[in-house]
Amino acid sequence: MYKKEMAECALGRRKAPVVLKNGVVLNVFSGEWLNGDIALYGDTILGVGSYEGEEEWDLAGKFVVPGFIDAHLHLESTLLNPSQLICQALKHGTTTFIVDPHEAANVAGTDGIQYIIDDASGCAANVFVMMPSCVPAVSFEKNGAVMHAEQMEPMMKDPHILGLGEVMDVRSVLECEPEMMKKLELFRREGRVMDGHGGALSEKDGACYRLAGIRTDHECTTYEDAIREARNGIHILIREGTAARNLEAIVRGILNDRISTDMFSFCTDDKHIEDIAANGHISWNIRKAITLGMKPADAYRMATWNSARCYGLDRLGAVAPGYQADLVILDDVEKVQVSQVFHKGIPVTENGPASMTVPEKLLDTVHISWPGPEVFDMPISGEKQPVIHIISGEILTDFSFEEVPVHNGRFCPNEKYQKILVFERHHATGMVGKGILEGFSIHGGAIASTVGHDSHNLIVIGDDDASMEDALEELIRCRGGYTIVRKGQEPVTQPLEIMGLMTAQPHEEVSANLARMLLLARDMGVPEGIDPFITMSFLALPVIPRARITPGGVYLVEKSCFCKEEEYE
Question: What is the model's pTM?
């Protein structure tokens, strides 16, 4: 709120309440680094220049940039309850989080969304929520809830709700399916941002997608796809997470073609806590872009001002008069060494808020009906079988029909081919999808997870039926999580008791446990370049090419059908 006292401070007629002296400040409007003081009045920046303050902090020539913005993330995918993740990312300079609680909504509907909002509300950060658009991701999926426009509209009154989350059912947009049209119209009428999930749209499909009101896309994996969509006015969120790492390809293209960076921002999408602790959050995206040759000012603009403009966050993204005092103090610009973080003019401390009590119904979400060990038996008919192929460093898969090992008429896993099963876990329907996986390479046991985008059914991969059964039973026992079972040994488990997606355990314990589990997965054959848990979690998402596994079986994304050899050929 503008008032006379603020004006007098901005004009230098009286001392400002707080002044950060002697900084080198990034001006995101001009791209300049300017020497000056930053005058603050509560949560608001009064000006940058020469100021005196009632309270003064000497920055001694350190660099000052706006607080970083993660333009798209799923808090659930960090495995921690929201407040823990936010507090960890704050240390690395991220002060604004544009959250899509798509995972929580697919398990628990509006109850899951409300939990995300409530748990994050006490953090020293700006947390905005994009209303999940595709719950379930596609109509045939077996998830825990269904959300239509009618369920969304009442929640839009919550000030945390910013817009519509990633519209991954592209076909429903292009074909103007009635239910999707209702959602698009609801958010268009309210003037809200709508996120996309296209990735490799053709020029005409991209034009139609943007015409429908979709404003962003975080799924581009190549520069060619990114620039084609950007030319249609779609803002590209360059993703650098734990499994999906698209930054280098897109940034190299930007630099090679010397194009403007105005239509590009940074996001993490899905990033594990141990990765954040070791390498940073959005700070990692900035650092990597600079290492590739991008001008530091451009990299920081992509992490701040570009995202704020895209999402209509008028007070965020700049160190300038009238903007919220979210600041990152840096010891080194190119290495993105964070010295201090301010949120609303107050230094962020190490101690975050206490996590809220989790509603009991969100702790009881794993409900599986299965016939017993015989479910892991896989009879084989025909010379060739459908095989899903892992692509290292990507969440995309490949697909083919191949001859696989067979013994007594049944699929016999080896170090190349493993079994993958998906159990419906929300309503105890007994549905189980079965497939053959290549490239994951785990042998001598099994690995399992209740994190399986986006319906979050229970996935088991392995080459030993007894180990696969042990893994299944372990996740039922602990109400969800990750587990690895080496043949003949006890499971090694990370419980994710909140919706089968997150845990209230301290992040230090989670990080240490996941590090141990990663080493075990590597020892059991999972190759470098594949994060076993995140890669596994995306194998069930039937909107990302080329093939996925669901409780209904192997699904071919481009053909929008379940796998039959005659349909494929």
Answer: 0.88
